[in-house]
Amino acid sequence: MSGLISVADALDALAQNALPPRAETVAIEQAHGRQLAEAVTAHVSRPPADMSAMDGYAVRLEDVRKAGSRLSVIGEAPAGTPFEQTLGKGQAVRIFTGGEIPAGADHIVIQENSSRSGDEITCAEGYEAPQFIRKAGRDFLEGDTLLEAGAILGAGELGLLAAGNIAEVKVRRRPRVGILANGNELKPPGSELKRGEIVNSNPVALAELVRSWGAEPVDLGIAEDTLNAISERIESAEDIDIFLPVGGASVGDHDLMRPAFAAAGFEPVFEKIAVRPGKPTWFSTRGDTRVLGLPGNPASALVCAQLFLKPLITGQRHRLIKARLACDLKPNGPREHYMRAFAAFTDDGGLSVDPAPDQDSSLIKPFVTSAALLRRLPNAPEKKRGGLEDIILTSLPRL
Ligand SMILES: Nc1nc2c(c(=O)[nH]1)N[C@H]1C(S)=C(S)[C@@H](COP(=O)(O)OP(=O)(O)OC[C@H]3O[C@@H](n4cnc5c(N)ncnc54)[C@H](O)[C@@H]3O)O[C@H]1N2
Ligand code: MOO
């Protein structure tokens, strides 16, 4: 495959050249944001036994069917210290939230509904059905699958693993993504700029995206516009899974990224994509290493990172969802267009999408407000305000 290919074909090619899976074991305290390499099963049941949901008295339901029932208190069951005897007729055990239900008991009378005098309680009400007992294994049983391979570990997932008595998990190794800028005009943020120089803004934004997708960005610096300078950066980079050259992707005399990677033994898979912005995006492989070449224009780099780098890192395709257009759209050209767009929830529970008025590929400001990429298929006809279009949500819509 080479030449100009469609977005769908580019995504297929990336999937066919997915990174080989590599796993490592980490403590759950270090596992936030990581992706499980294998399914995890519970080591314990939760709760481990029937538990009281309230502070009160564990009783036999048949003893408290009528208001005014009197029972004798024969012991205590606080959380962590089960009461070991079996409760008999007319007996109650003082129990606290999280205490294990003693054998023989099948109901909790909450303390607000009872009065105690010495070792005797009187129930204010009668009961028809058992209450306030959490059955063993209500959350999960020992041996249940808690999480599937591929799950991303956030707060809920980590709490679930800990509750399942799991201290370590096998997670996918974070791919190392080597970000390499290129251009004689580029200077780091904060530099004193001479005429013709511009600030190297793409790597810091790309690094943040890479991190947010669970990979590790590696700064390979700025290479000058010579084959040697770029080749040196490629050769001295250590343990990189995905090279991410940005800039020098087009056809100009100073666009040297492709030949430099070709000289380093990378074989082209595709050379450009019928996408806007970001047509010069290219992809090559060498053994287990990948190189995704992004154009230098900031919007092209950031949009194509969303479209092509994210699936390469995560192994997952984008999810398109529908949103209602807040303005009219002109007919699209021959390239699949991903417009930087503002997405917001509407009062009627829907989602609206409003493309930034200027879609030039050099602009960075639209990324500050945009939460979505609005997809327009090649040669799509004009669309009226209020119609439904496909979008990719890149962050949470505004409320
Ligand atoms: N004759 C043609 N010219 C161009 C074509 C084409 O098909 N034929 N394609 C255009 C398209 S589309 C794009 S996109 C750009 C991509 O160009 P490059 O990837 O070669 O990018 P550069 O020339 O290196 O830079 C473009 C632009 O972006 C600025 N830049 C570059 N790197 C950074 C950085 N790290 N941080 C901030 N800004 C950066 C650079 O200064 C340029 O202004 O090519 C078109 N040309
Ligand atoms: O594809 Mo380029 O990104 O249009 O400017």
Separate helix tally: 7
Mean pLDDT: 95
What is the CATH C level class of the largest domain, in words? Alpha Beta
**Percent of residues in β-strands:** 25-35%
Helix content: 10-25%
Radius of gyration computed on alpha carbons? 31 Å
Bound molecules: ligand LQZAQKY5, molybdate ion
The first-to-last residue Cα distance is 43 Å
Looking at the overall shape, the CATH architecture of the largest domain is: 3-Layer(aba) Sandwich
Total strands: the figure is 28
The number of distinct structural domains comes to: 4
Uncertain segments are none
Major β-sheet annotation? 6 strands, mixed
According to CATH, the homologous superfamily of the largest domain is: MoaB/Mog-like domain
CATH topology of the largest domain: Molybdenum Cofactor Biosythetic Enzyme, Chain A
